[in-house]
Design goal:
The structure is a homodimer of 907-residue chains.
Chain A: E1 8-11, H1 23-38, E2 46-49, H2 51-60, H3 62-84, E3 97-103, E4 113-117, H4 123-131, H5 134-151, H6 165-177, H7 187-205, H8 213-228, H9 231-239, E5 248-254, E6 265-270, E7 282-287, H10 291-296, E8 302-303, H11 306-316, H12 320-326, H13 330-333, H14 335-352, E9 356-363, E10 366-374, H15 379-391, H16 397-402, H17 410-413, E11 416-417, H18 419-423, E12 427-430, E13 432-435, E14 438-444, H19 447-455, E15 460-464, H20 472-477, E16 480-483, H21 491-499, E17 502-505, E18 510-513, E19 518-521, E20 524-527, E21 531-535, E22 540-543, E23 548-549, H22 555-567, E24 571-575, H23 579-587, E25 593-597, H24 607-616, H25 620-644, E26 649-653, H26 667-677, H27 681-691, H28 703-708, H29 710-729, E27 735-740, H30 746-767, E28 774-779, H31 782-786, H32 788-792, E29 797-800, H33 802-810, H34 821-826, H35 840-857, E30 862-865, H36 873-882, E31 886-889, H37 894-906
Parallel strand pairs in A: 14-15, 15-16, 16-17, 24-25, 24-31, 25-26, 26-27, 27-28, 28-29, 29-30, 30-31
Antiparallel strand pairs in A: 1-2, 2-5, 3-4, 3-5, 6-7, 6-9, 7-8, 9-10, 11-23, 12-22, 13-17, 14-21, 18-19, 19-20, 21-22
Chain lengths: 907, 907
């Protein structure tokens, strides 16, 4: 800590020491206040005590800090007095101050704001007289004592169940007066409140409320610095990788008042529409009000622009005459001040080259800007603003790309609830936001019934304890899926994301009673057929029907995607199992299929019968017979995929899941299967029992199936190669990539590769033609990453299956991790859910090692990733750095991945 | 291949070109034959065609090979003719030859031996005349045609179900003669057989049987070289890492005959007792017989020494007079030849400095040695011979250590079946040899009933589909355990090995019908109470009762262990959960406990009630209440361990398994639990359902429990520290090491370490005393190995949990892997079962990385391993190389580990 630097940075109309670049020293708020002053915006004067003072406080304590900065603070106050023409502590016309913390990054848990500091029993009288408004003065004083008592003197509720002690007193006084609203209390009431607040403070804290404004000021400053070190703030920083050493700044600023009568007002404004992105200045204000009144919603705020006011009136069904008289815009009401505000917003947006969120106060006809910051906006607004600012020459391409958060594109890609209907909807449960979008439909509990209901023209939401591959058909026709169990990468979640279908998983409060066909949440009982609505983007479950609408992809979206493609280095493929998926993926800009899960083709229609026949077969001959039935179906599946992806690579994974996923586990379905297949129930039960696994994730699956049943690999290889040849005959360009799953040793790969190559050679001989195809493997066991060099000598491509690789590296079952993962995230054991965003230090290190070893052994090996992480922006940034060739993700995440890949390439 | 070297190496009394050191060139058999000649042993002359000739054959083909070696072979035959005084191909007195393959390492699947080569329709008459024994001559000819027809001309059964075509003919002729034994066929019959054999060969092969001895010779030599490249031999070499390039040698040697009358004999002998190791020459012989007759068991062989003969007579209840007249020893019958044999065995044992297994033939009063090799022996004999030869100065300490195969010590440590009773026992099923030893007892199907039956004084074998922790008590009282499911590291297997109790797991043919209380194997049905016997060392299941006896640890065993300890670098600790285990381990020489699984203490008696109360508790307060009941019990457990291990380190692992292992999963037991605990059945069922996991191996277990329920960690830490202090008060030296399981990130460790350190500090404050203890972690997730440096900065020791690390690195569930692992081993995907012997390339690479990273971060970190691999000699060799401080294994494997550690240190 340097003692030669100063700690206090003034800002105002005559002198400003900071600027926007000094966020580290002055915090975000302080730096922006200084910047506004620099470019000529009228801001109440003040000064910022720097973050270095905070560090000095942490390291050297209160006494030493006060010694260090006392002189500068005195000078700062003198500067503010000079600018504002009032004196701090003056009983007749007191300068009042606001004290706000302001760190580099906004941080919950820290002290926020104290207003009206400087008031005491004498000054309040001077203020009343000067403002000619006794109620205003006492209300200001009341607010100050309450805030200061809370955050500086520590008068908080003693437990979660306890009430705010100040609010308790307010309620008592209101009861005594027989009134309901704070605004109905008069000056005398407020005066009484101040007295009672002070008594409470004395009783609880054992000290009098400080009457000396300087004592108040130092108390507030120290409180801000102390709040930097409170436990909640510390944990937050740990979890968000914010160094403890950063410290917070303190902003001390002159108060201005919007509640001094009808020439005063206060408001918030956006330089563009935060909802749509439209380049239209907009905002709300209230005459004779303070900032918090705008938010409190007691009075209806008025619109700032005439256009905004007219639009509002249309929606609110207010006649133009009524609007003009009762809800005039600022543009109409105070045209001069409106022009000043317009000039300020234009100046600020141009200056920051981004949409600004502004706070302003008009005090007795004079406009003060209190804050500017980059405005929050919807995903749609993000895209539109970035593209329009690029068109307007305000920002360059790279900046435009960085302005859009990839994750927010989700909002543009999925249906959303009708905003008006949503306002009155009731959240009855919460689960994991497993797959985004909105859905509304009638409850069904069984997948086959979902199908039946939909055929009757109904819209359904499928509610299950958990889903299994048997539910695929029902899931695909349902509007949305709700499961009581399972995590973000449970079967339901993964499949739903693949389908781009709304899904909430792991809604723990939901009990499903299949017998009674009831969904029970606490006391609430919903029956089959009742309406239910799901917001898969937030995890909220609503009772009843809420209309949804499809989001449209605007032209700006297309422009953003084209721009992304110009910058990104990673290719983006999609995980798609059906021609429909493939078409969606291609529309979203996928340049290939990175993962086709062939087993998903095993469930539809009569295929499952042949699959089960294979599973029940006693020997290879029996299996071959059943596989022969599957061959034409699989071949036609692949033909459909190759057709859709004409010219682009299609990576097909051989059978992966354990066989028990294909047989029924309940008695009723086993009986049905026995009847269908004309075998004894006993035989089916015995086979199902044989297939039981303790840890199916690590059981008999992946290439282990192909090794023990090479005839399955043979059939699949034949279906792929024959389909490819057939499509080439139709003039299409086919790029087939055959992928062996779950390889752990190179010998597993070569054994499977031998089967595939021999099958292909046999077909080539039969048909007298050849075909180029790639033969590679998924890298999804830790052992495969360790021996990636050996494997790369045999395999032509790698595709990282980071879902399984994460499970095995961390030892987390993704379906079970919800029992401890929330606690793990809370305690900062993992920064992010490792199934959503790749664990770079652990799993990532293995990926990195495998890429290096793989390329050493085969320089031109194609390397991609097809786990869930392929659609996660943070992970994509990692994959870019690691030098992968492509990521592959759900079709609906392809646009997100394209943008994320572009952003990764910018850094 | 060098053309300047020669390919043929003669051996005999006048000239010998090879010696024992030339195994690579001459194969084991050829090198030993040459060595015997060199040291003056009488051996039928011959020559060895070197492995280089085999390579030339493989690379350049038959024609070229014959060109290369023809001249030398001619010279070789001439040499043999000169030595033996007979001529190859001579019709009157033919030199007959034996042709044998002989590679560096013995290898099944290759051609073995052809005897009597050189015979044809003329020579057989000369042989008959010369030997004055027509039957002998025709029998020799019959054998030759049969062997040659089989291995050179390829007349084998056409399928597995088919019979040996030659044996079919023999049976036909015997039927026609009305006789049962081959020996009952006379010369004419044998002559007929030869004719019919030749006809069969002509019909099947389309060629006549060769009559030219030279053609016979070349055919046999080429057949040996071809057999090197047959598919079965190739696969065997691949699986055993034997280079294809080694090649085999061919030994061509003059025939001698022990069946030329009463001055001829043949026999086998051992220089020491192969069963007990006693330094006593022994063996068997038959007068007027060929080698195979000794093995065939048609006649009762006689003993070579008088002492052996007398001992045999005692066992066989043969009176001394009868013995002397009917079964005299060679020592008595042919004292001169016996003295020659004795001189030879002494010379050979001294020469090779190891117990020899000899073959000899006496032809008309002349002794010929046919073979010498290091004799196979029991584990007990291994130990005794090594220690006695060391005492006798024949070998040095290092050689003595290397002479004992660690795995074979098992035979000394566990009960074994009575050998006589075993002979008539019937194997009814086979499973995995999960835990060695022999057991016999009455079948019970339920663990609690095992307990009840044993209390009634019965001996039981517990038969289960699989076991679970609830079965612990029953397992501990049973004589042996048989499970139908599960692998070598299933619950049953691991627990049984820990207890040193006989166990066979995964006996797939065994069906268990719990309702009927029956064990069904094919058509065989055994009921509860029926007798069953298990050989846990071989995996054999026997019907009925077979008496067992405890093996005793002889003084030689103790000497071997002391010797091991002088050489080994690795410490050997034991995995022990109870004071009894600890005592056994200490007796076996463990120098610490490397793993105490605290959860095993949770099952006994009333503890399980408290554990379940904790699991059912709704909140932390409820859990604390239940834990308070467990505290004194755990503390006394630890006191017992510390007492037994006074002065030695005791590593205690905190609670590891998922909580559902502690609750009952069947309705009856759930009802019992509800009644016991006075809660509703519904509540229990709901909690059990909540605890259900898809992949429990990767679920809510290990330190994940301690993180979500820190009060459990707190209780266990308190129990450990208080127990340690209490024992120190009794004057004992306590070295406690507290181990946090399943750590994946350093933060998991530090969070748990904080709880433990705070608990310890609180106890120190309460009691006013301090205690040193180590705080470390298991390294068992791949992620922990990757971040081992981070973890080592916080943890004071590492203990590799290689069971789980193997599961996660390979993605194998050990309980499910039996569905594909046998196939994987067969196909050479893994050389050895990775749960028995550590996968060095995969899992081993992670261990090695973690050790290096760990030591970089903390140079003096203690590093051990406590998985099943800690008791596997091959793995121990790896751990030695990797620089671990100790291995920890089941108490019963401690001696094995000590010896293996010593052997590792020798290399």
């Amino acid at each position: 800590m340097s003692n030669t630097n100063h700690y206090v940075y003034a800002f105002g109309s005559t002198r400003t020491e900071g600027d926007a670049s000094m966020k580290n020293l002055l915090g975000g708020k302080g730096a922006n206040l200084a910047e506004m002053c620099r470019i000529g915006i009228t801001v109440p004067s003040g000064f910022t005590i720097s973050t270095e003072a905070c560090t000095a406080f942490t390291e050297q304590g209160r006494e030493r800090l006060v010694d260090l900065i006392r002189e500068e603070v005195l000078q700062g106050i003198a500067f503010v007095q000079g600018e504002m023409g009032k004196k701090f502590g003056d009983a007749a016309d007191p300068l009042l101050l606001s004290i706000r913390s302001g760190a580099r990054a906004s941080m919950p848990g820290m002290m926020d704001t104290i207003l009206n500091l400087g008031l005491n029993d004498e000054a309040v009288i001077g203020l009343a007289r000067k403002a000619n408004n006794e109620r205003f003065a006492w209300d200001s004083y009341r607010r100050f004592v309450q805030m200061y008592g809370d955050v500086v003197m520590g008068l908080k509720p003693v437990s979660k169940e306890d009430h705010d002690p100040f609010e308790v007193i307010i309620d008592m006084v209101k009861d005594a007066r027989g009134v309901k609203l704070d605004t109905e209390l008069d000056a005398a009431d407020l005066k009484e409140l101040v007295q009672r607040f002070k008594s409470l403070i004395r009783a609880r804290v054992g000290r009098d409320f400080p009457t000396d404004p300087w004592e108040q000021l130092w108390g507030a400053v120290i409180a801000v610095f102390e709040s930097w070190n409170n436990p909640r703030a510390k944990v937050y920083r740990e979890l968000n990788d914010i160094p403890q050493s950063w410290g917070t700044a303190v902003n001390v600023q002159a108060m201005v008042f919007g509640n001094l009568g009808n020439t005063s007002a206060t408001g918030v404004a956006f330089t563009r529409d935060a909802g749509t992105g439209e380049d239209q200045f907009n905002g709300e204000f209230l005459i004779n009000a303070q900032g918090e009144d705008v938010v409190a919603g007691v009075r209806t705020p008025q619109q700032i622009t005439r256009l905004g006011s007219q639009r509002w009136a249309q929606l609110a069904l207010v006649a133009e005459s009524v609007r003009r008289s009762q809800y005039p815009s600022l543009e109409e009401l105070m045209p001069d001040l409106y022009q000043q505000l317009l000039a300020a917003e234009t100046l600020l947006e141009n200056h920051y080259a981004d949409m600004q969120d502004l706070e302003f106060t008009i005090q007795e006809g004079k406009l003060w800007m209190l804050q500017t910051r980059n405005g929050k906006r919807t995903g749609a607004a993000m895209v539109r603003i970035a593209m329009e600012m690029l068109d307007q020459g305000m920002i360059d391409e790279k900046t435009a790309l960085k302005r859009v958060s990839p994750e927010r594109l989700n909002e543009l890609l999925h249906p959303v609830f009708d905003a008006t209907a949503l306002q009155s909807a009731k959240v009855i449960a919460r689960g994991l936001p497993a797959s985004p979008g909105a859905a509304t439909g009638q409850i069904v509990f069984f997948a086959d019934e979902a199908d039946a209901w939909v055929k009757q023209g109904k819209t359904v939401v499928l509610v299950r304890l958990e889903t299994s591959p048997e539910d695929l058909r029902g899931m695909s026709v349902a509007a949305g899926i709700l499961t009581a169990r399972g995590g973000m990468t449970s079967h339901a979640a993964v499949v739903a994301r693949g389908m781009g279908k709304c899904c909430i998983s792991g809604a723990g409060a939901v009990h499903v009673d299949l017998k009674a066909r009831q969904l029970i949440i606490g006391d609430l009982v919903l029956n089959e057929g009742d309406w239910l609505s799901l917001n898969g983007s937030t995890g909220e479950v609503f009772q009843g029907k809420i209309p949804t609408r499809e989001a449209e992809l605007s032209g700006d979206f297309g422009k953003l995607m084209a721009l992304s493609d110009r910058y990104k280095k990673l290719e983006v493929r999609a995980n798609a199992d059906t021609p429909t998926d493939a078409r969606v993926a291609r529309n979203f800009g996928a340049t290939g299929i990175g993962l086709c899960r062939t087993e998903h083709m095993f469930f539809t229609g009569e295929r499952i019968v042949a699959v089960r026949e294979m599973i029940l077969a006693d020997d290879k001959a029996g299996r071959r017979k059943a596989l022969a039935k599957l061959l034409p179906m699989q071949r036609s599946d692949f033909e459909g995929l190759f057709r859709e992806m004409n010219g682009l690579p299609v990576t097909i994974r051989l059978l992966d899941p354990p066989l028990h996923e294909f047989v029924p586990h309940d008695d009723a379905n086993q009986r049905a299967m026995a009847a269908d297949m004309q075998v004894s129930l006993g035989k089916i039960k015995m086979r199902v029992e044989e297939l039981h696994e303790f840890n199916p994730m690590m059981g008999h699956r992946g290439c282990r199936l192909g090794i023990t049943y090479p005839e399955v690999t043979e059939m699949q290889a034949r279906a792929i190669i024959e389909a490819a040849l057939n499509m080439r005959h139709q003039g299409l360009t086919v790029k087939a990539e055959i992928m062996v799953p779950l390889v752990g040793t190179v010998r597993e790969f070569t054994l499977q590769a031998d089967v595939i190559r021999q099958t292909a050679a046999a077909i080539f001989a039969e048909r007298g033609e050849q075909l180029d195809y790639l033969l590679g493997t998924m890298i999804e066991t830790p052992r495969a990453t360790i021996t990636a060099d050996d494997i790369a000598r045999q395999a032509e491509f790698f595709s990282f299956g980071t879902n399984d690789l994460t499970q095995m590296t961390l030892g987390f079952s993704r379906d079970d991790a919800n029992k401890f993962l929330p606690e793990y995230l809370k305690q900062g054991i993992y920064e992010r859910d490792p199934f959503r965003s790749i664990d770079q230090q652990g799993v990532g290190a293995l990926v990195d090692m495998a890429v290096r070893k793989g390329r050493q052994a085969r320089a031109d090996i194609e390397v991609g990733i097809c786990g869930e992480h392929g659609g996660d922006p943070t992970s994509i940034e990692f994959f870019h750095r690691t030098g992968l060739d492509y990521v592959s993700c759900s079709p609906f995440r392809v646009p997100i991945a394209r943008l994320a890949a572009a952003q990764a390439a910018l850094d």
